[in-house]
Amino acid sequence: MSGFSITWLDLREDADQRARDGALANKAIAALAQTHAPQAPKLAVDLGAGTGSTLRALQKLGANDVVWRLVDHDGALLDEALRRHRKEFVIEDHQCDLQIIDELPLAGARLVTASALFDLCSKDFIHALCTKIGAQNTGLYAALNYDGSTTWHPAHPFDEQVLAAFNQDQQRDKGLGPALGPNATSALKDALESVGYSVEVTSSPWKLDSNDKALLQELIEGIRNAVADSLDHQALEQWVQFRLNNLDDCRCVVGHTDLLALPNAQG
Ligand SMILES: C[S@@+](CC[C@H](N)C(=O)[O-])C[C@H]1O[C@@H](n2cnc3c(N)ncnc32)[C@H](O)[C@@H]1O
Question: Considering the entire predicted model, what is its pTM?
Answer without folding.
Answer: 0.96
